[in-house]
Specification:
By secondary structure, the chain is mostly beta strands. 10% of the residues lie in helices and 41% in strands. It has eight helices and 67 strands. The protein has an eight-stranded mixed sheet with strand order 47-51-50-49-63-64-65-61, with no helix packed on it. Strands 10, 11, 12, 15, 16, 17 and 18 form a seven-stranded mixed sheet that branches. Strands 29, 30, 31, 34, 35, 36 and 37 form a seven-stranded mixed sheet that branches. β25 (360-365) and β26 form a beta hairpin. It starts with 9 loop residues before the first helix and ends with a strand.
């Protein structure tokens, strides 16, 4: 809005002033009324243009007060007038000009104070410098801010040490758990502030808690305090502390340090609590803790091993071991306490009383005594040097067990008698009722058993038992003592033999197959028997078997094997000694019966030469062209039988198979007529022999029991630990029930402690035996049912051998024979007429079968035990040049063994003929003789010269 008195705009005036100031000219002075003159528009004095314009003044006001200028032109309050107080600090005040302009003011020389919490008063000077045509300003100013603040209950704050403080006007009441009744305090301005409460304290029987709240208002710090309290009673806790302290004072040397320390800690905590403003609940809990600590006072104990010594409060300690010690008592006994602070880490020792009674000695075992008694100990323990006593019953052995062994090296167990030790062992009687394997060894020394001459006999329907009694005794010292023991070993020797219930004949063929034939009409009082076998069984091997009237319960006693002999017509005379009685069985063979079949294939004769020559001998005894099988017996040292078959010109004869079993050999011939009829003749030659074969002579050793000490599972246990054999003193267990035993081995079994085992054995065949074990359990009543049986085959080098020593072709051993080589080739004069046999060791008892098939022979050897077979094959072809194409059909049967074939003379003859230029004559002669009439008996030369067979 324009001033009506001002002709020119204010802006022009301000601009003019600014210009003058810029030129260094002072501005126009303010009017005395505080107005500012308004200069002319032109400074040049050209007033014609501005003469109608008038000067106007600006009025300046501050908070409604018009300011006046002092003598220096500075605006200030009129004399005697004060400006109104500001309601806040005038940091942004300004002077208002009537022309609408303002002068910003600066507050200076300020001073403030706080007459009340929440109230601020201040003084200062508002100033401005002259600038831009505006005047300077200097005006005094006052101001008041805030509102007086008190506690909510009207309690005023007072200033103290620069801070406002107030105390709540009344005392509050604490809760029973010492919790404050309020958490916040209010101010008069309506604000709430959290109270920080101090810990409860005890003052004059009251629990007191002090609380404070603080803050800041307009830079003024304040703090308010409150008090809360409640009544309390510490009598119960004080009494509990006194009781606990008394228990502690009286517990030295009676309670463990740990439990006393725990009680001391509890007393200390309770004492502290008793001096605080604790809650009733806390004091109740502390009383309980004190009572628990007193109740947990651990009485000091002393124990040895697991036994605690008895003890009364304030007294000593005493105890006795509940069990009897099995060792000698020591010189001291170690005691262990439940308080590790006593002694050495809670342990000490007390000594044995020097006047203790010595041990009582009684016999326990050979060389061993038992010491029994009670050891007493007495000493003091560290907790108050109280007396401690201890006693220990003992029973232990002293000395070293003297080794005592009986038959088979088994340990002898002694039992206590009246003033001596005794043992009973059992041994066997031999067939002469002499004790065998009756060795008794004491402390490594063999002692002599004194035997009674009386043999007691006990006979039943099936068995007879023979018994003799023996005894040996002596003295030994108990090591470590002066005690002497007397010992006695009673020895019972017996044997039980089953009565002979029957005899049987065991037949073994050359191929190893066996069969058993019962001999009828057996009567123990009859000692000679006869059995007849088929005629074609004459070459087989035979031994005698038997049965016991006791079955598997007891064996028949067998005597030394007796070699079989030959009787008339090659019968076998077999003998066996059973229970001291020799039984003789003559094995006869049926006479071969004539056959009417194929009469056109008859031989005209079989000729036998027993001189060892290959020439034609005498007609075989009992010759009948329709009897096909014959038997010849020769002596042990006879050279053998050369047998020559003869037939008419229209009958062809060929040497066939050979079967050899031990000392018997059967040679077969096949005849064929022109019309196709055929027959097979055989001659068996049996050689007598005084020495039994390895099979006939073999008898296994007695069964052994290397155990007998393994505990039985129960009193009625009838099971064995194992079974097997003993070889070179070492027992070998076997799982199978049918097995072989190496050479030198003996059937064995491992029984259990307390069992009684009776072994029955019987020969099954060859080298095979069956063992039946009747096992009586430790209870003496239970018998194994069924009784376990085991079949074993004994291996020996001889009876397991199945190898020939030579192959004989046309009476000569072929060259280059090696038992390990199984295929051979050789040449013969006539592929249709040749003989083959084989040598072997007859003493082994093996069998050999030679099977011929035109130009081939297969030789099979079977061991006496039937477990080993060896097969050899022979391939033959005709010699390209020979002077004799007749071939050979005559055979030396059961000849004495020999090797080598002398063919040098024949080769020399052929060589001379060729050299003389008569090869053609030789060839012609060869063709003429190739299929000519055969005549094996041309000469009476040796087998080595004639080329006829010489085989064993």
């Amino acid at each position: 809005m324009k001033n009506p008195r001002i002709e020119k705009p204010a802006a022009t005036l301000i601009a003019t002033a600014t210009l003058l100031a810029g030129m260094g000219m002072p501005p126009a002075a303010l009017a005395a009324d505080g107005t500012t003159p308004n200069p002319s528009a032109s400074a040049s004095g050209a007033g014609t243009a501005d003469k109608d314009q008038t000067n106007t003044a600006t009025t300046w006001t501050l908070m409604g007060v018009t300011l006046t200028a002092d003598d220096k032109g500075t605006l200030t309050l009129p004399d005697g007038q004060t400006a109104p107080a500001f309601d806040k600090r005038p940091d942004n005040a300004s002077v208002q000009g009537s022309d609408g302009t303002t002068i910003p003011l600066t507050l200076a020389d300020t001073a403030e104070e706080h007459p009340d919490l929440g109230v601020t008063t201040g003084t200062g000077t508002l100033t401005a410098e002259a600038k831009d045509g505006r005047p300077a300003v200097r005006v005094p100013a006052t101001w008041t801010t805030g509102t007086k603040t008190t506690l909510s209950d009207g309690t005023p704050f007072t200033l103290k040490d620069g801070a406002w403080e107030a105390s709540y006007g009344r005392t509050l009441t604490l809760k029973d758990d010492n919790e404050p009744p309020v958490r916040n305090i209010g101010l008069s301005d309506g604000s709430k502030h959290e109270i920080t409460w101090g810990e409860p304290t005890l003052h004059d029987g009251k629990v007191v808690r002090e609380g404070t709240a603080s803050g800041e208002i307009q830079g003024q710090k304040w703090q308010a305090t409150l008090t809360a309290e409640r009544d309390t009673d510490h009598t119960g806790l004080t009494q509990a502390v006194a009781t606990a302290r008394q228990a502690y004072d009286q517990g030295a040397d009676e309670y463990t340090a740990a439990s006393l320390e725990n009680l001391a800690d509890s007393i200390e905590q309770a004492d502290k609590l008793d001096r605080t403003g604790a809650t009733d609940e806390a004091m109740d809990a502390m009383r309980d803790r004190l009572a628990e600590a007193v109740g947990n006072l651990d009485t000091i104990t002393w124990k040895t091993d697991s036994t605690t010594l008895s003890h009364e409060k304030g007294q000593g300690y005493d105890g006795k071991a509940p069990d009897t010690a099995d060792a000698a008592p020591g010189d001291t006994v170690a005691l262990t306490s439940n308080d590790p602070t006593l002694g050495k880490l809670g342990s000490t020792t007390i000594p044995r009383i020097q006047t203790d009674d010595p041990a009582t000695l009684t016999d326990e075992d050979l060389g061993v005594a038992r010491a029994t008694g009670t050891a007493h100990y007495k000493g003091t323990v560290p907790n108050g040097n109280r007396t401690a006593t201890w006693s220990q019953d003992y029973s232990y052995t002293i000395g070293t067990r003297v080794k005592a062994t009986g038959p088979d090296g088994k340990a002898i167990g002694f039992t206590k008698g009246s003033g001596y030790l005794s043992a009973t062992v059992t041994v066997s009687l031999d067939h002469a009722n002499q004790p065998k394997d009756a060795d008794v060894t004491i402390d490594g020394q063999s002692v002599q058993v004194t035997w009674s001459d009386q043999v007691r006999t006990t006979t039943t329907d099936t068995t007879t038992t023979y018994t003799r009694q023996g005894r040996v005794e002596g003295d030994v010292k108990v090591a470590g003592t002066d005690r002497t023991q007397h010992w006695i070993v009673y020895v019972t020797a017996s044997r039980t033999e089953g009565h002979v219930a029957g005899l049987s004949l065991i037949q073994r063929k050359p191929d190893g197959t066996t069969s058993r034939h019962d001999i009828g009409g057996f009567d123990p009082s009859k000692h000679e028997y006869t059995i007849t076998m088929p005629a074609d069984a004459v070459a087989d091997q035979y031994t005698l078997g038997h049965t016991s009237a006791a079955g598997d319960k007891a064996d028949v006693s067998e005597g030394t094997p007796i070699a079989p002999t030959l009787g008339a017509n090659a019968s076998r005379i077999l003998k066996t000694t059973l229970n001291g009685v020799t039984y003789t069985v003559t094995v006869n063979f049926e006479t071969a019966k004539p056959t009417a079949s194929n009469p056109h294939a008859r031989l005209t004769g079989l000729y036998v030469n027993l001189t060892g020559k290959t020439g034609k001998g005498t007609l075989i005894d009992g010759w009948d062209p329709d009897v096909l099988d014959y038997t010849i017996r020769i002596g042990a040292n006879d050279p053998g039988a050369y047998i020559l078959p003869e037939a008419s010109d229209d009958v062809t004869v060929k040497a066939g198979d050979v079967r050899r079993a031990g000392y018997a050999t059967t040679q077969y011939w096949t005849t064929s007529s022109a019309d196709g009829q055929s027959r097979t003749y055989s001659v068996t030659v049996i050689r007598d022999h005084e020495t039994p074969t390895a099979e006939e002579a073999f008898k296994p050793g007695a069964a052994k029991d290397p155990d007998g000490h393994t505990p039985a599972a129960s009193r009625d246990d009838t099971t064995l630990v194992s079974h097997g054999y003993i070889l070179n003193g070492e027992y070998h267990a076997v799982k199978d029930t049918d097995y072989t035993i190496p050479e030198g081995g003996t059937f064995a079994y491992a029984s259990r402690q307390g069992q009684t085992v009776q072994v029955s054995e019987s020969k099954v065949k060859g080298m095979t035996w069956k063992y039946t074990l009747n096992i009586l359990a430790p209870d003496g009543v239970t018998l194994a049912s069924p009784a376990p049986t085991f079949t074993v085959t004994y291996l020996t080098q001889a009876t397991h051998e199945a190898a020939i020593t030579a192959i004989i072709v046309d009476g000569r051993a072929i060259g280059g024979f090696d038992p390990a080589k199984h295929e051979y080739e050789t040449q013969v004069d006539n592929i249709d007429h040749w003989t083959a046999s084989a040598d072997f060791d007859k003493s082994t008892g093996m069998g050999v079968i030679i099977h011929k098939d035109h130009d081939k022979a297969t030789i099979t050897a079977t061991s006496a035990d039937g477990l080993t077979k060896s097969t050899y094959t022979l391939k033959v072809s005709e010699k390209p040049l020979t002077l004799n194409r007749a071939g050979i059909d005559g055979a030396t049967v059961e000849g004495l063994a020999h090797t080598g074939a002398d063919t040098a003379s024949m080769i020399s003859v052929v060589a001379v003929l060729l050299a003389a230029g008569v090869a053609c004559l030789a060839a012609g002669l060869t063709r003429r003789l190739h299929r000519g009439k055969r005549g094996d008996a041309r000469t009476d030369g040796d087998a080595d010269v004639t080329g006829s067979q010489d085989a064993e």
